[in-house]
Amino acid sequence: MPSTSVDKLLSEKRKLDGVDANSQKKKQKCSAISRTTALLDSEGKAEAKKIMQRVRSKLNRMPSTKHTTFIRSKIDMLDKDRKEMVGVFGKTGAGKSSLINAILGETKLLPSGNQGSCTSVMIQVEANMTNDKYIAEIEFITVQGEELSRKIACFTVSYSNSDTSEQLYWPLVKCLTIKVPNSEDLLEHVVLVDLPGNGDRNKSRDTMWKSFVGNCSAVWIVSDISRAISEKESWVILDSTVPFFGPGGECRSISYICTKTDDIEESQKDNAHSNICTRNEKTKEEVREIFNEQEDVKKHFSDAEGLFKVFTVSSKKYKMERQNEPDEKEMTEQWMNALNDTEIPHLQEFLRNLNDHRKRASDYISGADGILSLIQAARNSDMKYSKEVMRKDLELRLKDNLESIGQDMKKLHKVFDHCLSQGVKKSEDSDEKLMNEILEPEGISGSGYHKVVKCLCQNDGIYEPTRTSQTEKIDLNKHLAKYMLNDIAKIFTHYFSNDKSGPIKERIENFTLDTNSLYEKHKCLFLHLTFLETEKELKPELICYLLKKKKQTYNTLSESIKDSMRVSYENASMHTGNGYLQQMKDELHQHMKKANIFQKAKKDMLDGLTELKDHIAKEMKCKLQKSIEISLQTPNSSVLPGK
């Protein structure tokens, strides 16, 4: 490639880094600044993509060698895109569909919940980055479910308030994905997911639900403003799902969104705007006060109050104002204020920030610059002695960094060992009490509870209530692990924080070979150092692995107990006849005593932390050593792209 390609990329990067900071003061103009910045990001990234496509095209016409294969893999890594997920929770009729429609500038993209029976299907809304078409993709529970749906269409549930023969297929559907044109630059790297509040009785859908919730970077709790304070359901949803998106997930933001703010009583309509604003501010204050009382939620975040936001929105008013939108030259401050009062633009800005166009574009351009530097460096003269000296410098720095990370991970292991040991002792001292809190709850007679215990045993310690049941979901395994979970709660939040960089994530983010300090000593190898400086894709990979392992680690205790108790659940479920309830209880109690379930759960969690330490060290050592080796080797110039 021409040497000017690097200069062009660096010029684009400087543009991204140098956007006028004072322009942020003009935020009110319908996020015009954000859109302009996003356009600039896209243009710079698009230019870098064109250059990388030309490099890739030349590579595809060349024989495969160690160097060409390595460069291809680096270009492929640039195009990998990890999307941020926003989970939207709320009961039927809360205004979720209208909210999503308004944010995306759509009218009837998602049907409102009052049009028929409620389903538990998860709905994903994401950008169609291929063309301007609207696409719906339906994922059925199994392939045979899809075939079955055609045969039993006449037997599926129909709309309760419809005279038509239109049918509901939701019992067979696992997930619905809707792809929309990306006209507002809101969803390029973001997915909105409309989620049921408490999982699903169907195992396939429940597994997907847990996966979605665990992958949410942000959570939106949606409630009608008239019920936001009095209604408990929204807070129940938050309390029951926080283990999945907090310590068992990666949520960095919780927003409570009060909808239908323009719905006011007839007597208040004479001074509607003032009354709406007053109610909005009062509701925000009261919602924040309620959140501050949610100790079981806040304990899972290092800065709970900082991550919690309240919005008061009117989808109807926003649509009306957009329909009356004047030309750009005629936009008045009054119209812009009216639009912002609906707070829909605030949520749109939230999504734009979550897209993080500038950082993604800057990272892509930086990575492309590194690839071009590697190609040019490999075509330079041999300089064998200089390369060997620099290799030793780099490998020594890599070794020191790995030892430092290893020491940090040993400290983590020691702290977790201590806290888990305390939890094990409490659990073993109170095991009978823990078990009886589920098997013999106060205020519930045995005659009416035997079916719950039976279902619990048949489902590996988990009872999923029916829609008409008065009993809430029960997870005996998680209940047995509660003392251990409580004792590691603080250190887990500290080491694996979502809202801030915990010690492990921070160590990965700050990991560096400090190539800048080597430029003076190795001036003739500046292109090699430029490539190594841009070797950043390993960090996102490791942070992604850290998040995945963090979720698994948090769930280790209850999963380990489930595994240890599985035999007793199976045996207990086989009991029938007179006195079978007591026989089931005895079976579970006896197995718990002899199976050493708490010690095993502790060991399994510590083993998971050891696996995390080993993986981080291995990946860093292998991949960075390979990058150092490739960058300092001099291949035959004929096997690399030419000018």
TrEMBL record:
Gene3D superfamilies: P-loop containing nucleotide triphosphate hydrolases (3.40.50.300). Coiled coil: none annotated. Pfam families: Dynamin_N. This is Dynamin N-terminal domain-containing protein. InterPro entries: Dynamin_N (IPR045063), Nuclear_GTPase_SLIP-GC (IPR053082), P-loop_NTPase (IPR027417). Residues 86-234 form the Dynamin N-terminal domain. GO terms for molecular function: GTPase activity. PANTHER family: NUCLEAR GTPASE SLIP-GC.
